[in-house]
Amino acid sequence: MLNAIYNIVDQIYIGNSWVGLQGVAATNISFPLVTICTATALLFGTGGGANFNLMMGKGEKEEAANSAGNSIFFLIVVSCLIAASSLVFLKPMLTVFGATETTMQLSAEYTSVICVGVPFAVFTSGACILIRSDGSPLYSMVCMVSGAIFNIIFDPIFLYVFDMGIFGIALATILGQMLTAIIAAYYMIKNFKTVKLERKHFKPSKIHFIKICSLGMAAFFNQIAMFTVQVTLNNILKHYGAMSPYGSDIPLACVGSLSKINFLYMSFVLGIAQGCQPIYGFNYGGKNYRRVKECYRLATSIGSIISVCALVIFQLFPRQLASIFGSGSELYFEFATKYIRIFMAATFINGLQPITSNFFTALGKASTGIFISLTRQVIFLLPLVIILPIFLGIDGVLFAGPIADIISGIVALSLVHREFSSPDFKGAPVAP
After folding, report:
1. Domain range list for the chain
2. Could you tell me what percentage of the chain is helix, strand and coil, using 3-state DSSP and rounding each to the nearest 5?
3. What is this structure's pTM?
4. Contact criterion met (CB below 8 Å) for 83 and 36
5. Contact between 6 and 162 (Cβ < 8 Å)
6. Contacts of 9 (CB under 8 A, 6+ apart)
7. What is the distance between the alpha carbons of residues 14 and 22, in angstroms, rounded to a whole number?
8. What SS3 class is residue 286?
9. pLDDT digits (tens, 9 = 90+) for 81-125
C-alpha cells in the first residue's frame, strides 16, 4: 500500500500544481521502472523469505540464514545494476515506455532522480519481506510507513515552498526511500531474531541463488508481466488516443493515474497474500496441511470482501476518483469515467489470482505459481489489449480488463481445487 502511496501522492501534488496534466502523464511514463524495481524486490525478497520459512519449518536454521543473507546480497547488487543502466539509457528507455514529445522533458527530469533511489527502494521492499518472515511484521510496517510519511510531508515543501517542480517531487520520494532503507538495514544487522546473520551468510552462493529465484519467480514474473502490459498499454494508448477525440496525453494521464488507485486496492490483497506466506511455508514444511487449507480459505474470503468493496467504489465514484489528480477538461473526465467503470468491472474476482499464486509459491511449487502469476497479465490481458483495439479503437483497451480478470480467476480456482484434491490435502478437512 505504501509503495502505491509514494506514486499516488506524487501525482496528486503534481496534478493540482502548475505542472498539471503533462506532469501526471510524465510520472506515469516512469512507472514501468517502478514495476521493474518491485519485480526485483519480490524475486529476491519473496524467494528468500519463502525458502527461509521452509527451512525454519524443517529446523534447518543454517540454511535459513544463508537464504536470508544471499537474498540481501542479490537485492543490493541487482538494484545497483538497474539504477546504473537506467541512467545511462534514460531517454531511449522512456521512449520505449511510451513518452511523447510533449512529456519527454518532464519524464526525464522526474525519472533521472528516481533512478538514484532505485537501490534503496529495492533493498527496503525485499528486506521488509524478510523482516516479516523473521516474525516482525510490525517493524516491517513501521519501516515502510516512515518513508511514506516523509514523502507526504516534503512533497508540498519542495514543490510549493522551494518551487522545485517535478524534480522536488522526485527528490522527496528518494529521500523517503533512503530513510526506510536505513531502518531496514539496522534490523537486518542488529535485530534479526530467529537466526543470527553473520558475514558468511551474505557470501553469494549459486545453490541459494537458484533456490531463491525458483521460489521468487512467480512474484517476479507477475511484476514483469505488469511491466510488459504497462509499456504495451502506454504505446497503444498513445497510438489509438491520437486517433480518438481524447488525443494521446489524456489516455496516458488517465490510465496511469487511475491504475495507481487500482494498485492501491490490490496492495491490500497482495498484503494478505504475502502475509500468509510464512504460515503456508512453515506449516507445509511441518506437514500441518489442515492449517494450510484454513489459511488459504481465510485469505480468499478476506480478499473477496475487499475486492467487492473496491468494485462498489469504482462504479459509484469514478469522477470523484479522477478528480483527485487535478481538474482536467471534460474530455479527461469522460475518458476517466469510462476507464474506471469498464476496465475495472470485474474487480470482484481480482483477489484470487495473486493470493493463489503466492499460495503455490509458498508451498515450493514454483512452476504452478509462475503460471498463475502470468495468466491475467501475459496470457490473457496482453493479447486482448493488442487485438481488441483493432476492432473497437481505444475502447478495446477498456474491455480487455474485465475479460482477462474473469478468465484468470476461474483458472486460479480450478488449480487450487485440484491441489486440495491431492492425497496430502484430501485427508485434512478444514474445521467448521
Report:
1. 2-426
2. 85, 0, 15
3. 0.72
4. no
5. no
6. 148, 151, 152, 155
7. 9
8. coil
9. 999 999 999 999 998 888 877 778 888 888 999 999 999 999 998
- Alpha-carbon distance of 38 to 19, in angstroms, equals 27
Judging by beta carbons within 10 Å of its beta carbon (0-12, 13-18, 19+), is residue 341 exposed, middle or buried? middle
Place of cell 515502510: 144
At which residue does the C-alpha cell 522512456 appear?
Answer: 94
CB 347 within 8 A of CB 265: yes
Amino acid at 327: S
Q: Give first-to-last CA distance, the chain, whole Å.
A: 32
Lookup: cell for 102: 510533449
Question: How far, rounded to the nearest angstrom, does the alpha carbon of residue 170 sit from its chain's CA centroid?
Answer: 19
Grid cell of 233 as nine digits: 498499454
pLDDT digits (tens, 9 = 90+) for 310-339: 999 999 999 888 888 766 678 888 898 999
Grid coordinates representing 219? Answer: 512474484
CA pair distance 103, 341, nearest whole angstrom: 27
CA distance 432 to 423: 21
Judge whether 31 and 99 are in contact, CB under 8 Å.
Answer: no
